[in-house]
Write a structure and sequence with these properties.
2 domains, binds magnesium ion, binds uridine-diphosphate-N-acetylglucosamine, about 450 residues, UDP N-Acetylglucosamine Acyltransferase, domain 1, about 20% helix, Spore Coat Polysaccharide Biosynthesis Protein SpsA, Chain A, alpha/beta
Length: about 450
Amino acid sequence: MSVSLVILAAGQGSRMLSDLPKVLHPLAGVPLVVHAMRTGRVLEPARVVVVVGHGGEQVAKVVSAEDDSAHVVSQDQQLGTAHAVAQAREALAGQGGDVVVLYGDTPFIRPETLQAMQAARAAHDLVVLGFDAVDPGRYGRLVTTGDRLERIVEFKDATEDERAISLCNSGVLCADGARLFELIDAVGNDNAAGEYYLTDIVGLARARGLSAGVVRCDEAETLGINTRAELASAEAAFQARARSDAMESGVTLTAPETVIFAQDTVIGRDALVEPYVVFGPGVTVESGATIRAFSHLEGAHVSRGAVVGPYARLRPGAELAEDVRIGNFVEVKAAQIDEGAKVNHLSYVGDAHVGARANLGAGTVTCNYDGVFKHRTEIGEGAFIGSSTMLVAPLRVGAGAVTGSGSVITQDVAEGALALGRARQDTKPGLGKRLMDRLRAAKAAQTKG
Ligand code: UD1
Ligand code: MG
């Protein structure tokens, strides 16, 4: 049966005290709303609808960048969670199948939990994700009889007895789409908050003889982000788990507590990650590669046997083949570096292709930007680029070619050629010493006077 996702992301998140909509604050390098979208992907949703409100345009951009088939719908006034889901009705018209509701500010729900909810739909018309709260606080409470869920009561509307219930509502639920919207139509706003509560659909369903069930998850999964402090502790929780997952899958972390992962970092077995390495989004490091201390990687692929750093920076589109060496203070952006090539010191390689076993000397720079346009540099297999060569793109350096140190290369260099682009050296015998003697004498005269 097909499943669609509705992700609620219209709330202002006023407690963040931010100009950025809450769901765009990054956790593990990725906006909160994208975490929800990626978790939902396990259900292979036929349609994804994100309900936006505050900062809607900004949120829509991020949503489409993640999934260009996702539908973004606006909820102009935040009248409650049922009203928010109702905004997705048109986008889901004719879709059929189930709808799973997720929150854009709740990034830790596990894919397995959504699968368990989907499985539980075999036994119930409506499935709600609940958790046993250590401190139930202001969460909605799940009122049950045995295994059956009877209704959900919001904290503000709950009696003392109901507030004593520790089984709480996570907000995630799953039902047949047509049925869900029918029930939502019956929701009113006569309650303590004056809002259209999505949670009311449980009681309404039960009154119509439908069944409702609860799938339980760990409280940590349902953690929602409302403040900067909660965001920071969510980040800490994410990092702790990512580090232990990496080690459990065979990655060596010399000082795990200093390594920062992104939501989608992939590191192969027997890779070594030294202290203080930061992984931004979109990094894959293959088995047996080494990332040395203080390196920063983002949108990069590092193949087997490659060594990166210390103090290296790989930016989006850095593609390192096997056994490549990227050394200290080297930046690589949108560049393919072929097998065994070396860029070991103080270099910038951007919009480039470096052939296998080429060697770029210290201080090599691909001058890729003319102030308006970006241009490419092609360096052939086995080329040797002398230290401090400026490669002014667009440029091709042929296989096995050599450039002299300190050259500014502006014209293509043929295969096997030697290119020198620097002023010829002029040496004046004895002049160095004479010059220094004169300067020292001038200084001595000054101190006397
Ligand atoms: C909601 C649940 C509560 C549950 C809790 C879990 C309801 C009525 N209550 O309460 O049972 O224990 O979540 O965290 O559903 N949103 C919109 N549009 C709106 C209102 C909300 O998009 O008009 C979004 C918010 O941005 C947020 C989510 O829905 O992502 C939940 O809204 P929130 O106001 O936080 O609900 P709670 O009062 O926390
Ligand atoms: Mg909330």
